[in-house]
Design a protein that fits this description.
This protein is an alpha+beta fold and 383 residues long. The chain has eleven helices and 13 strands. Helix 4 (80-97) runs antiparallel to helix 5 (100-132), helix 5 packs antiparallel against helix 6 and helix 7 (154-161) crosses helix 8 (167-178). It starts with a strand and ends with a strand.
């Protein structure tokens, strides 16, 4: 199963747009051992032949997602060159499949692979130095930044940063490695990374702020009262915010509960679309026969853009009617999806919410809602 985090962020946050949260290193010097022994050259040939031998859009979609998964496996094994080649093949296969999800994901994956190749070249010699001398503090810092910020593999990256020669990064890495579920310490470390991000520029600044966001959001999940108010203020400073880390208002739901944190609302764990999880996804099954399910969020004019994907989750019944997803701002329709029926038919939304105070998301169906397991794919707002 593929797990993608921060999947649909706007281009201004390229690092978030492309991150697939999979560790890796290089083809020869692996940051982590591969999960399985794959001959990527042979796998490329198999995927190419399989795509060449079919004209079925459904089959092409399956091959495209297989190529996406294989490219991610190449990242995990550290073979970035193979990852680029296979992601490029995924782009070529996805286009004739006409599946929006496969097209968007394969293009973003290719961008990420190209970024990893480029960024690894900058630290390759430092990585090699660490093979000879793990106590080389300069190499530990520079390679640790690559692992944490570019690969988004923070646990391993923190281990290296804690051995590095940069005092600010070393101190924060040591503090984060020491904490478990101590929310007070978690907030201190989150504040530290956010402040450090303010001293950096460009993508490094964004990457540090996004890590701080991850820590703040972990604390948000378990917070109440004054603590939640304080964390809410910090999250409001971030360049993006997922809706599941905001307080929902006026929930009107269908037969399932309102689902948060990747749960569709049935309490069965994280839902998938095309076998991909969405940790910040929402589930909002519509009511039957034109009665909308809905939820509001208070934006207070702080954000410029709302981004999401919408779909029916995997493993749902064959749906006989259609579902429409609607985004409203201050009671005005900002975006409306085409009627969706088939599983795997993800549609994407990127709409302005500038000066919008109250955001509403809504699902509705003209028929019965049996099997209408509507989900929002990591919806978030951007400043």
């Amino acid at each position: 199963m593929l797990t993608l985090n921060r999947q649909f962020i706007a281009q201004t946050l390229f690092v978030v747009l492309c991150i697939l949260v999979i560790p890796g290193g290089t083809q020869v010097l692996k940051a982590v051992p591969p999960s399985e022994n794959i001959d990527f050259s042979e796998k490329y040939k198999q995927l190419f032949q399989e795509a060449k031998s079919t004209s079925s859009k459904g089959h092409l979609k399956e091959v495209a997602f297989d190529a996406i998964e294989t490219s991610q496996a190449a990242i995990k094994s550290g073979d970035y060159t193979a990852a680029v080649k296979i992601a490029t093949l995924a782009v070529k296969i996805a286009k004739p499949s006409e599946n929006n999800h496969a097209i968007a994901l394969s293009n973003r994956l290719r961008q990420r692979c190209l970024m990893l190749v480029r960024e690894y070249r900058k630290v390759e010699n430092f990585h090699k130095n660490l093979q000879k001398d793990p106590k080389d503090s300069k190499s530990a810092f520079l390679y640790g930044k690559f692992v944490a910020l570019k690969l988004n593999h923070w646990k391993e990256g923190l281990d290296w940063l804690a051995k590095g020669d940069d005092a600010a990064y070393r101190t924060l890495a040591e503090q984060e490695l020491a904490i478990l579920k101590d929310d007070d310490s978690l907030l201190d470390v989150a504040n530290g990374w956010y402040q450090l991000g303010g001293e950096e520029k460009g993508l490094t600044k964004q990457e540090l702020e996004l890590h701080a966001y991850d820590l703040y959001s972990r604390a948000w999940t378990h917070s109440i009262g004054a603590d939640r108010t304080a964390i809410n203020a910090k999250l409001s400073e971030m360049p993006l915010r997922y809706l599941n880390h905001m307080q929902e208002l006026d929930v009107i739901r269908g037969p399932w509960h309102f689902g948060k944190n990747g749960d569709a609302g049935n309490g069965a764990g994280m839902f998938t679309v095309n076998n991909i999880e969405f940790p910040n996804g929402l589930g909002l099954v519509p009511q039957s026969r034109g009665l909308a399910s809905r939820v509001h969020y208070q934006l207070d004019g702080q954000y410029k853009t709302f981004v999401t994907g919408v779909a029916l989750m995997d493993h749902s019944y064959q749906y006989l009617s259609t579902i429409t997803f609607t985004v409203l701002g201050d009671d005005r329709v900002l975006w409306k999806s085409p009627p969706i029926r088939g599983r795997g038919d993800a549609v994407f939304c990127n709409v302005s919410v500038k000066n919008i105070k109250r955001l509403e998301i809504r699902t509705e169906t003209p028929g019965r809602n049996l099997g209408g397991h509507a989900v929002w794919l990591d919806p978030h707002v951007l400043k």
